[in-house]
Amino acid sequence: MGRFHPHANSQPHANSQPHQNGQPHDHPHKDGHARPPGSVGDHSGYRTGAERVEVLERILGENERVARANRAAFDAAGVTVVNLMSAPGAGKTTLLAETLRRLAPHRRIGVIEGDIETSLDADRLDGFGASIALVNTGNGFGGECHLDAPMIASALPRLPLAELDLIIIENVGNLVCPAEFAVGEDRRAMVFAVTEGEEKPLKYPVMFRSADLVLVNKTDLLPHLDFDTEAFRRNLDAVNPGVDVLAVSARTGEGVNAWCDWLADPLGAPGAAPARR
Fold first, then answer.
1. Nearest 5°: phi and psi at 212?
2. pLDDT in tens, 50-95
3. Which residue of 127, 146, 148, 183 has the smallest Cβ count within 10 Å?
């Protein structure tokens, strides 16, 4: 059936349909983003239908409605919300633990922890002074691979919203689906581990394009890897030109203070990009 993703206008978009000769189109996305280098491929297996489009439009429309309601609740409480996304194993939870260790004594922080099953990550973050609400998505079809706006809404009654300065949403580990669903956040940050390979922005452009900040994590491993930092930056610029990037290592502490500064700044240091509304 193929995958759809909403663009800024919230309309789902099915990627290339084949020409009559069976060759796939190579065209810019309707939101104006041209395909990045290396993205041309065989999309002839991409099939869809009007019924699927209609269903997805209803799903995304409802998600947008609830995201706006979440946003109104956050605004009324005066709380800043950051959606933290990554692939599984990129180091979100380890980085978040180090973040709470540094920020929680000075800021009132809530965490919405998303996982398909278990409370393992929520348990790791317990004891750092943050209020934590766990959302397990395992009741979805095979386990939902993302948090959506209704899931975030379900977690809000379990947080002292009016008493918080900052909420960090640790999304389910996945390089596709979390980027497709707005949840009412101010900003989005993604954690990318150098062990994942420098080609990932080209292979998963929606995730990298949606980020306001890319945290390049596990930099302490660079001496042991063949990771091409310059190639990664070129690939990232191809899909999200000028996005803020921070090199971090939760293990050594490199870059964590700069990340904490970005979280503490209502406009988002280092680039002071405007907040999402």
1. -85, -20
2. 777 777 778 788 999 999 999 999 999 999 999 999 999 999 999 9
3. 127
